[in-house]
Structures are given as C-alpha cells and as structure tokens.
Amino acid sequence: MHNATIFNAMAVSLATVTTAPAAGAQAQAPEVRFARQFSMGYRQFNLMEKHQLLEKHAKSAGIPDVKVKWATFNSPAAMNDALLSGSIDIVSGGVPVLLTIWAHTRGTFNAVEGIAAFSSQPILLNTRNPNIKTIADFAEPDKIALPAVKVSVQAIILQMAAAKRWGQANCAKLDAITVGMSPPDATVALLSGSGDITSNFSVPPFQYQQLQDPAIHTVLNSYDVFEGPHTFTVAWTSSQFRDKNSTLYKALIAAFEEATWAGMCKKPRGYGSKRQIEVDGRSGRGHRVRQGREMDLVPENTMRFAEFMHLAGTIKAKPTDWQELFFSDIHDLPGS
Q1: What is the pTM of this model?
Q2: Do domains 3-121+230-330 and 124-226 have the same CATH topology?
C-alpha cells in the first residue's frame, strides 16, 4: 500500500478518536516533556514546538491545558537515563539507542518501545586528513568524533562498516579512535584544523556544512553500508507513560502525523516552503533537497541494526520483527 494511502487512513482513524472529548481525558498528564539532540532528524519536533501541534490535538481530545516542555541533549545515553528516571517523557534519537533501552527494559513494568520513525537519511563520515580514502586508512593519531562512543547510530554504523571490511570479529576495530562529542562542537573542531579531531561521523546539517570547506571530504556514507536507505531518527517512550495517558498518546500520534505531512509538503496543512525554512533556520530549501532527507513515520531497515547489535553482543535480546520494537499504533505501516 502506498504511504500516502496509509497515512490518510491513519489520519481518519485518529480524527475519530480526537474530535470528541474522551471519558477521563481530564485525568491525563498536564505536562509532556520532550528530549531531542542537535540534528535535522528531529524536524517533526521542531514543527510540533513551533506550531503547538500536540497542544492542538490534545485540546481536540478534551485535554485543553497540556504544557509541553522541550529539552536538547548532547548525549543519547543521557536521554535514556532521563527517560528511565522519569524526568523526560518522550525521547528521540537513532535506532541503536532505542534498541539499547528496549533490550534493557524488555519484560519489566516500564518497558520502552518506539512510537514511530521520523526520517530516513544518509549519515556521512567526513575527514580533513587527505590520506584517508576508506576506513582502512584510519590509524593513530586520527580521532573520529561522534555523538556517543559505542551506542550512537554513528558508532554502530562504523562497527557495521568495520565488520564488512575486516569480519564480524573485528567490528570494534575502530572504536579506540572514536571520541564522544556533540555535532556542533565536533564541527568546530574539524573545521578549525587544530586539535586531535581529524574526522567526524556527524548528522545533517552539520555534515553538509563541513563539506563546504574544500579541505573536507567524505570517507563513508551510511547508505553504502546498508546498501540502501535506513531510518535515522525515531521517537520512543515508556509503556507506563503510554498506558497512563492513552488519550494524550493518541493526540501525540496525530501531532506526529501532521508534523510529518507538513514537513514533506505532501498534504496541505497550511505549512508552505517558507515555514519549512523558518523551522530549519540556517538550512534553506535547496540545501534540504541536496541532503535527500525523507521524513517518514515508517521504520526502515531497523532490523538490520537489531541483528548486528545482537550478533556483536551490544544488546542481549533481539526483537523478532520490527513490530516488537514499536508500540502497536503503527503496526499497520509497511516497516522493516
């Protein structure tokens, strides 16, 4: 089934549950706290914040006074810690970070699962070292900056690339030269040409900003590792939050769906190109097209991450399919 048809059907079903106040709706949580990182992979969150989409859908569902708070984290591991501690309700990040907390909480009273995917887009490993043409050329004293060592989506993809190059037993071959650093700080370090950071496995828009410097070139594209597209960012929450706030959770899904359509400009919601550029700030429409980003709630190639991480011993449990990794609200979508 075509994605447009699927999302149209999704929108109709969500409209049914959100147009009339639900019984007990006033008992829902009065505050929702979101966590995101530095990247264009969280653009649905940006649109939701700017246009107050969750507040809009919650009000339609009979919850008029929802307060929404937004926090930005440097580390994906810190976001998971915040979710488990109860200081954050909705978390977003790369698929490996979701898999890590899913495996850690599986079978517990507060199990964590995915809400939906946000985007499929390539991630680039860039370097200023002219002698590095492939990952086989990395050696001390080269240092690769990435958002989090061993657990970030960049770290896992680097391990996958190493496994393809040197075999599964050597998947961690390059881990020793990786350094945890936020994308903005890593970009400054890479472009400055000083210090130990010679390379950065980054995120949009920073990876494209880096390539504007003629001294920077790309060593690895994540789509080449996967031999095709893969989901980059996803959102997740705890089963406890979802179960206690069922009406609000439906409003959240509706807000995700509207933000996704608004960002893709595939469905008229009153959000034109001008507003897209406003939300993305420094990235204009032409730059966005060159990045080839696709906003989509459908999880794509998530099981490739799961299978590799389980084989590498990063997670002890592996979902049997992508539906086990995500709450049932999106199980009708053609994920993988």
Answers
A1: 0.80
A2: yes
